[in-house]
Amino acid sequence: MHVIRFRKIEGSLKIRVDNAEDLWALQRILFQDDVVKSESMRRFRPSEGDEGEMKEVVITLRVEKTELDRNALALRVTGKIVDGRPLEYVKLNTYHTLGIGVHDVVEITKKSWPNYILNVIKEAVEDTKKPRLAVVLLDDEKALPAYVLGYGVEFLNEVYSKLSKRMKPKDFEEQKEKYFKNVIEVISNFNTDTVIVAGPGFTREDIKKYIEEKGFSGKIGKRLIYERASDTERTGMYELIRSESVENAMVKGRLRGEFKTMEEFLSALNVGKAGYGLDRVREAVENYEADRVLVNDSVLGDPEVQKTLSEAEEHKIRIIIINSSGEAGVQLHGFKDIAFT
Q: Which structural domain range is residue 43 located in?
């Protein structure tokens, strides 16, 4: 996510959506009565009964509901139009749905921007720049390493095998081992905890076997996932990162922190150092009993929850927002969507 402009006095934030995860972050911070402005398409009918034609417009609407369409990679924001341009193509006070996608620019206006909401934006901006996953494509000629970032792929220097069919069997095996060791060194130096090793032929299986037989699995210190790729060029990399396995690996990486937070809450609850439910959390916040408040993003629009979180901010209590659609969020839902430790 990229912040284009933030005007705190006016209560407006203008951002650009850089990736699919930004849509999820955006849904977390959009509540009823917020005002959203973005480009859209709207059917213009010059007269009644006319089929009309689609026109490009800029729509400003007051939010009533949001829905994340993961298949279409779009956030659908529905509400009544309060402004628009060109005005001749826009009918005020009628319902419209904005389909916000990757690369779209959105302006959001709120009555107030509490810090826990601004932190969601801040984390989305930082996540765009952070390596979230590392990938190595390899075959018997070369390895192509890369980082998968929020805004795209950062390719690193290729590693060449220097193998030749003209080599003697002994020399070939020695050079192959050097090649594998060089690739393993690259994997070890990655600044991520998960690495996908992929390729089109048998080399992927050969290096997997080598890593396991030579005892490198524990030394590498990474979680390795082995996948097939069509080739070891950049086209193969882009094809791979659009796959379901890569998406799942990134989602799991993001959710691991939430699992850890829930485990810590359950441990504290067992010894009487935690509680849950809005009334109990409010009491803990008022009495300075809480160090952290855990809250599902699905209830952030609740005025009573907002009031409690605002008081928590005043008391310098850390607020952790959990993805309600993930397993940790489902678990927290069983504790009335809000808890403290």
A: 2-129
